[in-house]
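Exam prep: given the inputs below (a chain plus inosinic acid), describe the expected output before reading on.
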Amino acid sequence: MTATIVVGGFWGDEGKGKIIAHIAHTDEPSIIARGGVGPNAGHTVYFEGKKFGVRMIPSGFVYRDAKLMIGAGVLINPEVFLKEVELLKAHDRTFIDYRCAVIEQKHIEADSKDYLKEKIGTTGSGCGPANADRVLRVAKLAKDVETLQPFLEDVPIAINEAMDKGEFVLVEGSQGFALSLYYGTYPYVTSKDTTASTMAADVGIGPTRVEDVVVVFKSFPTRVGAGPFPTEMPEEEAERLGIVEYGTVTGRRRRVGYWDGELARYSAMINGATQIAITGIDKLDKECFGVKEWGKLTSKAKSFIEKVEEDTRTPVTLISTGPEMEHIIDLRDEKL
Ligand code: GTP
Ligand code: IMP
Ligand code: MG
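Solution:
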């Protein structure tokens, strides 16, 4: 067996958490491993009627039979991590790589003022300064933190051995393509690359073992914080369309835009997309809310999805029609 990576195609907040929850419940991975930057992420998952926002633990936690792992590339905020473990009662199945670098109070302070806060509009979670310390080779690692000892693991060994045994491994990315330090709208980006190759490296999987890359796009892209947004719509237009959103971590209002086919194509290319998941089809056409079959979508929704396939040159296999886990059309059996 091989691995599937799920990444964001635009500026994050595409609904990766929801897509991951669906894939986990249908494909039953033995391990769900998180790559990405750190607790700047916020994934929202609705589960058993409750809304959960997670920043550190993989959003795949809703699938109870998987071990949850955080790869070495990801920054750990021990306080945030331990709180989530407690909240989700996930002590027995959560592991972090002993080489994860640690966010300290000084990083959060440096991230909450001056250039980073005022110009870049960071999440203030300390990720940029902690990654800078990591590059300077002065950052503390998870293995040096007492409270993290019970969770330490060699994540690449766990994952590669699981795959050797024929088990399925799901890798979740965070943030989104256009926030990549390399390929995004620099300097208005996050503190590392956010493409699928980096997610594989973050958790310790070689590129030859990755079978599928699912790139998640939303029908109306959003962006939080400063920086270019070529297809942005006026705030009043988002209000008129009833598609205003607020951030999971910062509570900031998200800027909203129209579909950007050019960016989607570039993103699908660099991510090596084998499948596209599209969320928010109910925002495109209210009549599609909660629809579970392709045949029941409106022609407006169908032609939009066909355009997404043309733009990305990749099949759209997962179509999300609302925030709940069961609001989804899964075409993987038909299209792959
Ligand atoms: P990041 O790591 O921050 O990029 O997280 P994410 O991709 O998991 O997205 P996030 O949870 O921050 O934001 C997505 C929002 O859209 C959440 O509030 C979801 O509940 C919601 N959502 C996901 N899919 C759909 C959908 O198909 N329709 C609607 N209306 N909302 C959706
Ligand atoms: P940082 O990652 O906190 O340094 O923030 C840098 C930029 O990335 C800012 O514009 C943030 O709003 C954005 N960003 C970081 N993480 C996320 C995320 O998970 N979703 C959306 N935007 C994010
Ligand atoms: Mg988010």
